[in-house]
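Dear Dr. H.,

I hope your travels went smoothly. While you were away I took the liberty of generating a structure for the chain from your last submission, since the lab meeting agenda had it listed for discussion. I wanted you to have the full record in hand beforehand rather than looking at slides cold. The sequence, exactly as received, is reproduced here:
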Amino acid sequence: MTARRSRDGTLSSALLLVANVLVPAAILVFATGFFPYKPLLSGLASYDTVTEYGDPPAAPFDRLVFMVIDALRSDFVYTPDSGFQFTQSLIRDGAALPFTAHATSPTVTMPRLKAITTGSIPSFLDVVLNLDEGDESSSLASQDTWLAQMKAKGTGKLVMYGDDTWLKLFPGTFDRADGTTSFFVSDFTEVDNNVTRHIADELKGDDWNTMVLHYLGLDHIGHKGGPRSPHMVVKQREMDGIVRQIYTAIESEDHLSSTLFVVCGDHGMNDAGNHGASSPGETSPALVFMSPKLRSLKSNLQSPVPEDQSFQYYSTVEQSDLAPTLAALLGFPVPKNNLGALIPEFLPFWKKQDQIQLLMRNARQILDIVLAVFGEQILESDAITESRADYQELAHGWKDLADGYGKGMHGEGTSKLVASVTKWLQNAQNVLSSMASNYDMPRLFLGQAAAVTALVAAVIAAARCASGQAASFIPISGILVAYGVMMFASSYVEEEQHFWYWATTAWFAYLGVRRFRRGNTSALLQILSTTALLLATRIIRSWNQTGQKFAGEPDIVKIYLHTNPALLWCLIGATYFWVHQNLIYGLSGLPIWFSFSTATGLVLAAFTFKVAFTLEDAPELVTEFARRLLELNFSQGATLIARARAVFMGLALLTGITLFFMLTRRRISLGQNGPSTLLTLYTLLALTQSRATNIPLYLLFNLQHRLLSSPSSLATLSPTELSTTALLLQHAAFFASGGSNSIASVDLSSAYNGIASFDAAAVGVLTFVGNWAGSVWWALAGVSWLLACSSSLSGQQREDGRRWGLWKGHVAVLTVFVAGSVAAVMAACTVLRTHLFVWTVFSPMYLYCVAWSLGVHLVVNVGLGGVVYWLGVVEGGA
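The corresponding predicted structure, in token form, is as follows:
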């Protein structure tokens, strides 16, 4: 029997290893097939390649100042509450022409800059590359852009100051540059001052023809405090002051008299201050063209304009329209890969014949893309096939335009041709923008095959680890099947939180009914325990409304905490007091003077850091009493970086002491084991990395944990059911804290705690902890349950290796769900790859699936959880 159990254990271990190696391999293979770069036309466009239109018309401008204000949502410029008073005066005066630029998803900086400069539709993979400060694979150095065209003109140098994403995209392009990191979101001022300090000198010089400025402070304010942060209008006024400085120089300096000044946002932001998805606020940045020459267009529009919840102000254009518009206004060919259309409002700069020429050149350039994909025969074929109908209609429409142009229309015919070409351009833009990506289907299928193989291996391993407990696998199997089906519906993906809330509630109700029927304890106690568990779960569900449809709906944070800061800080104080008591208890094996003073000092440092952080982040949430506490504290005057580092160093010190005691099989606590003390220390880290409004959630997590950890509860749960409970609570906690399947919900507000300069590894870890803090908490709580079960094993069972069998069974259950969910998400992305929402819903879902599989499962549940479980076993003397 022992030999057989040993063989089964070896086989199950091998299968688990195979499954957990195949999961990341499947993810990597699938990603390389799902996120490929689209083929592009090489080289620079030239007027010489298209000669039938004659010499290009004269351009009204010869110099460009292109100012990007990161996350400049349209209402930040155009509404009465805006700080852009000078800009609004230019709009009224006719010296500025305003638009709302539509930014397609993903609404993050790198892909948006690619769209702005090339006029094309970037790959969704750029949302990943956008997070890598050291990435250079996304370079546009060899692609045709308006920057390359301005450089090819040879009329001056190119200079750039601001977000160093431009330097990654255009290596070697700029003659003078000073880049700033785009991810240090704690910095509102220096990151912009480093840009502004160059402007005065550059405006005096005349050796440049293109100056790019990219300001980041407004975006950082959004990430930290949202669009209604008290810092927001102040920053808008600062940016408006820069606009005034540049425009005044254009008016007064002779060498700048033909300068076009463009101010735009690369994307907007949602109500939480984040971006990356496709909500109206995220996809609606402002776009303003400015120059004294624009007065000849006699626009003189109203400004400011009333608030619009759709964020659509004035005319709406595509961001890709910037490329052909700048080409016409500055006198260079339209970039080869452009899908944009010349903005019609600028056509009055030229006479009718020149207008037609500019539009026909734009149309011919887009036609070249169609011909490159489908060949010249598409112009010759009269039979329209279903798969190419849209493109063949474009080709036939082009032939009509070419015939009309060849007839040399005059008078009303000229106006009709202008209208016809404009309509063709808009139609072509719509057709080509929705063109499916060139998926690598063999890689997609290979990735799915690897995921399915991992699932099979995990299922076999789980069955061997939990022999005789087949019924306990029914719940986790049902959860996995329901989750897999849900991945094929975009609405369910967007609102995934409801699945976990209802599944967790149903699971707790089932456990309560089962305990009641078994009658292990008094009926009243069972009813009270289950009711308290369900009530805590209901409150957690209502803490933060997330997802897409209900993100702005009332929740506990909005209704009670934002409007009642005193209540918020009472709950925060209670949470830190609970941690303080748990920490003293967890260190009770040490001298009382050391345990009390260390615990008090660390918790006080963490609490005052949170007060100081919130005072910077959202001062309206800080009560006068909390401010006074901060003033009385011995650390008054300390920076946020110093405060955070003090907390991290204190946590590291106590974690090291706890690990030492566990490894030497000594008790650091008189009443609890080492893993419980580690959970308390992690709780303090989670509070440090969480938004102030989410801190009270951990009181509710603790209540749930205590109710589930009671001897009567643990006695009725099999190891598989314990793992199922931990899995449900990990996911529910993520969504309850404000997470969702949208890139925009990634919270960067605590990503730079204790960091003075950008460090990819440190920022990555802090970002992960900040967004999955609750999930990690429940992963460690699940380990404590397993250790409690293992401590109840008999001596013989421990010698038989049952303790490690418990851990393998836990990992097996979690691996079954992870492998199954990865396979389901891959299948959904493959089947729905031509779906309208593939880039706004399913692709972000895949990225979150990667984070859950690699970060939460492999790193936290298997890696960190395995270490803590091993330490608990060592401490227990097994």
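Two observations you may find useful: The first strand starts at residue 63 and ends at 69. Residues 129-137 have pLDDT under 50 and may be disordered.

With kind regards,
E. W.
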